[in-house]
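Because discrete structure vocabularies remain unfamiliar, it helps to consider an illustrative case, giving the amino acid sequence and backbone structure tokens:
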Amino acid sequence: MARNRSKKNSILNFVAVVFLTIIGIVLTVGNFDIPYTDRHFNGFANSIPLGLDLAGGISVVYDCSLPEGRQQQDLDKAIEATRQRLEDVIGEEYSEVTIQRQGATRLRIEVPSVTDSEQIFALIGEPTPLYMTLTENQYNAETDIAGADIDDVFVSYQNDEYGVTVRFNSDGAKKFAALTGSAASGNQKIYVYLGDVNADNLFQALTCESQIIGGSTFISGGFDDIDAAEEYALKIMSGTFNAELELLESSVISATLGADALKFCLIGGFVGLLLIMAIMWWRYGDFGLLASFALVIYMILMIFFLQAISFVQLTLPGLAGIVLSIGMAVDGTVIIFERVREEYRSGKKIPLSVKGGFKRAFWPIFDSNITTIITAVVLYILGTASIQGFAITLLIGILLSMFMNLVILRFFVKWYLPFNSVKGKNLHLPKQERQAKDVAHENVVEGGLANEQI
């Protein structure tokens, strides 16, 4: 009676998992309009952000230096602030941009799916330092404003005309309030320079009628349309980078090369999975089929997390990380089933062999995966963009492989045992050796309870 109930529960469990797996496959590879809505579902696999080497795009390298008069020990902070500023500026238009430090003084900007570098240069502008002073051709770092004091620049529409709003950070707001107060009381102009402070780089001389507080100002007048205002805003924005940027190289990577690489990787991966599944069935019989089913769920979860985690960008090294994590997942499965075979060979029944196999395999799987996880974390923290792509996919894959082997596969085997707890042939188990009486006694006492403890 209990055995029939266990079979019924196992059937219901397998049916539910198969149903959910089919839904997962449809959501992973599907591409369809959502019924009764105007939205389109693109599928998990099609929604994974691709890196430069797969999607194509542009790569730009800048060399960073400090404006004249700044101390070189401030260069590292200036480069990091510039990197963050570039991420804000370019990221508003291209969310998949990657900006990395390269060497001591260089920044590499990679924007996938963009083939015209002028689009990026238009966003950045011609990077030159910006200064606002009260004294013509002179700059005082204590009282005058530099680009680092500006938080944001954007076009706005006020009083029936287009203009440019400049928003300052906390230090810049204090300086600007003092600057405009002095300019208004002394009937002075505020001189704006793009480049070193000299007559050749004077951009504009602004008139200020009263002190401006509140941390922002609206610059109006002289803009015929929104395009003129945007051009002005871009020039101001180009001066907000903490370091001066000198263009060293700009290259365009063809999307065709990346598409071919991705296609062949997918074909190779699919063929490899089929071979793995065939070998698992040949070696472990029904257990191999269960492992193959778990591997399908593993791939669905992997693709889901690749598109769900916002900072993941799939690259060719990232594909290598996925392949490696699949290999380690299969290794974990092999360790478990080989331990089961050893237990069975020693004379134990199948339920006890399974229990002992999972128990003996836990720590080898856990230890090997933990060391790999630590390695992946270190690579992600210290590595360049391509190494980080490898590290993050490897990390996701290893965590999922542990979940697959220690949780999913364990449940599958537990649900399977009510259908076959005595036929080792179906599991391709080896012949048993003759054992001492204590092993036989252990089988008798624990055999009926082992299935509930797996």
About this structure: The radius of gyration is 32 Å.
